[in-house]
Amino acid sequence: MKTVRILPLLLSLSIGQALADTPINLTHDATPNVHVSISNVKGAVTITAWDRNQVQVGGRLGDGAKPLAIEGSNGDMTIKVQSQGKSGWFNWNSDTSMGATTLDIRVPKGASLDVDVVSAPLSIDGIDGGKISVNTVSGKARVNARTPIADVDSVSGSIELAGSAGKVSLQTVSGDILAPNIGAEAELQTVSGRIRVGGGPWRKLNLSTVSGDVQLAGGLAPGGTFDVDSMSGDVQLQIPASTSATIHANTFSGDLRSDFGTVKKVEHGPGSELQATVGGGNGKISVETFSGDLRIRQQD
Asked: Using one digit for the tens of pLDDT, what is the confidence trace for 181-211?
């Protein structure tokens, strides 16, 4: 009798082990500029561009996930990892109880991407021409691409943007922002983390941080503006000698030094300020820090 009871249990366990960590091997024909939406709750996502007009998905599907499929048309498709558990109030944590899924995805070079990941590091390489949008809750996001628009939001994790991007929005609650070559427009925000940014010439750049040091190097386009606002952390700004702009800078508590103009103490109250005109004064540079040193340097 014991054997009769145990055999079904062993059979069910063996089936569960067979379904766990299942290899993924999917392909779908695609247009050269296909739009691909990708979602993964736990694991890792690697996206690599290639010369084929095809989307290919490899990797391994975690335990407790539904069988994966590429849904949609050749021009607009979705790849979404979902839990086998039922949705609803009493199953709110069914997604987080899944095993880790690893997605290794290849897309055409001109593809546009919308990526949502929760507990998964993300890597994107080789996109050339498509737009990129990323939302990550916990995990590092690394993007190496040539794109007209890059929009990356991270709750907990650093953002690294390599290659080149014309219009950029990078935001993180806790993590660094590293972007050595951003184009004409940029919006950069972090609550806690360093910001290291270069590029330009910028038509418009807005940068704000609550806690973390800032290093910014680049020039302004004719008539361009950039604003830097830091609550706590040192700010170092490097601009070319050929810059044409007015500079307004002040710090409430910290040391202010500049290669342009003359720094003065605030007449009423603590702090220092700078008012200077560089070149023809066609653009506008505004830098404010509450607590932290501020350096404005001439870029070699």
From this structure: 999 999 999 999 999 999 989 999 999 999 9
- Three-state secondary-structure class, residue 90: helix
3-state secondary structure of 141: strand
137 in a structural domain: no
- From CA 92, how far away is CA 152, in angstroms rounded? 26
* Domain assignment present for 153: no
**Tens digits of per-residue pLDDT, 258-299?**
999 999 988 777 789 999 999 999 999 999 999 989 999 998
Indicate the number of domains in the chain: 2
Please name the residues in contact with 268: beta carbons below 8 A apart, sequence gap of 6 or more: none
- 188-203 CB burial, b ≥16 within 10 A, e <16: bbbbbbbbbbebbbbb
Tens of pLDDT, residues 226-262: 999 999 989 999 999 999 999 999 999 889 999 999 9
Angle, CA 267 vertex, CA 266 and CA 269 arms, to 5°: 70
Is 116:47 a contact under the CB 8 Å cutoff?
Answer: no
With vertex at residue 161, the alpha carbon angle to CA 163 and CA 152, rounded to the nearest 5 degrees, is 130
User: Domain for residue 162, yes or no?
Assistant: yes
Query: CA 243, 224, 183 angle in degrees (round to 5)?
Result: 95
Can you tell me the distance from the alpha carbon of 257 to that of 264, in angstroms, rounded to the nearest whole number?
Answer: 10
Q: Running DSSP on this structure, what letter comes out for residue 65?
A: B
**Per-residue confidence at 96, pLDDT binned at 50, 70, 90?**
low
99: amino acid identity, one letter:
G
Per the structure block, which two tokens stand in for 123?
């890597």
pLDDT at 86: 52
How far is Cα 183 from Cα 6, in angstroms, rounded to an integer?
65
Q: Could you list the residue range(s) of the whole structural domain that residue 77 is in?
A: 15-117
